[in-house]
Amino acid sequence: GFYATLTQTPEHILTQTNNKTEILCELKQEHAGVYWYRWSQERQHFEFLVFSNTLGKATYGTNVSQDKFSVREARSHSSYSLHISHLHPSDSGTYYCTVSQSSQLLLGSGTQLRVVDALPLPTKTTQTLVTRKPVLRITKSKAASTTGPCSPLVWIPLAAAVLLLVLGLVLTAHRLYRLRRRLWLRIHRQ
Question: Which residues form the Ig-like domain (predicted)?
Fold first, then answer.
């Protein structure tokens, strides 16, 4: 699947204005470098932020500040981290690390960054219900989900195999029962 070769962490970041943060992207295949994009919910579009090649050279998107965004590489081209400094509420969005491999774009699972002026104070209630809002995914990650562990491509053949196995066991049990019965009749006739 798409996620098997590219891991992005963390899933969510909540931080305050003027802080800095880091998003990690781990790769398990050959690549020429890592692209970073941000999906803006309010502007409803993807923005190209930066591309960092395996030599450490960065290419920035239009109007993207090099003081704000930087990419660091670790563990011999297998791990990249996007550093964002001087955070502002307008930096909120879902960040994706991406690699290009054999004319496909492999996408990370996304990191939802929320920048607020003041962090909410913890409530004094003993139990709070947390509802998760669905995160908008682009078509590539939806395509990726068709090869996931719960896709019809996996469970239909699995269900068919289990059905055949159960059918085989029932037939075998029936044959053994008939054989035992014949043997019993043969013994009691003599």
Answer: 4-108
Which letter does DSSP use for residue 119 in this model?
Answer: P
82 neighbors 71 (Cβ within 8 angstroms): yes
Q: What six digits make up the tokens of 72?
A: 């660091």
Strand partners, 34: 52
- CATH architecture, range 6-116: Sandwich (2.60)
Cα 85 to its chain centre, rounded Å, is 25
Domain residue limits, the chain: 6-116, 154-189
How far, in Å, CA of 169 to CA of 174, rounded? 9
- The DSSP code for 6 is E
The gap between the terminal CA atoms of the chain, to the nearest Å, is 65
Q: What does the block give as tokens for 168? A: 């085989």
| Bridge partners, residue 9, by sequence | 24
Concatenated DSSP letters of 13-76: EEEETT--EEEEEEE-S--SEEEEEEEETTTTEEEEEEEEETTS-EEEPTT--TTTEEEEEETT
